[in-house]
Amino acid sequence: MQVEIILTVNEMEDQLLVGKTAVVIDTLRATSTIVTALYYGAKLVEPKAGIVEARNRGKELKEGTYLLCGERNGIKVEGFDLGNSPLEYQPQVVSGKTVILSTTNGTKTIQRAMLAHRVLIGSLLNRSITMEEAINLGKDLVLCCSGTQGHFSLEDFVTAGAMISYLKNKGIQIQGDDRVQTAWLLYERYADDLVELMSCSQNGSRLVNIGQKADIEFCAQLDFFPLLCYFDGERVYY
């Protein structure tokens, strides 16, 4: 299997995606939050790049059937129902609802990935089931790290490494450049200290500083939700 790692949404050129399986990663926190919301009963998640786009979509839906959710720079958007902490997305809150989500990095990456043959939503929380689907699809794989406002993201990169580790442990012969090898080695070194590692990242440090280290601890749980999540160009479903 040919495996590539894209470090930020700015690297997502069309030719890197077409005909391949894309796994979008935004560990802290969009893809972790999407997986959590769907596992806890959300009807579906609609990722929107912009706040205005999200608000306009909400106006099209019946009141009481949706939640307007998202953040900018880690803080819940004013007037939204929920932010981007997966801990907010409890069953009693999200069950049966359409979640309209707009985040600083992750939802832009999800929308940008739609040219791939199949787009999967990946996180540490659903690492193994996502990689099993990538194997079953039989396509070359692109791990799309969302990054942080156009810059490299440590927590997304180590999550990509966790996915590569799973493939290697399954005996998959991987062809990839030094990004792939480095991500794998990083994960192997810090597999037992992911919270510590991610707390040192730019996003992690920011979450710690605003009192949300619990989000890091939650998002670092490996295979906590055995849920396979797809993006069809408009919505994420399972």
UniProtKB/TrEMBL annotation:
Pfam families: 2-ph_phosp
EC number(s) given by UniProt: 3.1.3.71
InterPro entries per the UniProt record, alphabetical: ComB-like, ComB-like_sf
Family: Belongs to the ComB family.
Record PANTHER family: 2-PHOSPHOSULFOLACTATE PHOSPHATASE-RELATED
Taxonomy, superkingdom: Bacteria
Keyword annotations: Hydrolase, Magnesium
SUPFAM superfamilies membership: ComB-like
Ranges annotated as spanning the membrane: none
GO terms, molecular function: 2-phosphosulfolactate phosphatase activity; magnesium ion binding; sulfopyruvate decarboxylase activity
Catalytic reaction equation(s): (2R)-O-phospho-3-sulfolactate + H2O = (2R)-3-sulfolactate + phosphate
Required cofactor(s): Mg(2+)
Record protein name field: Probable 2-phosphosulfolactate phosphatase
Gene, per the UniProt record: comB
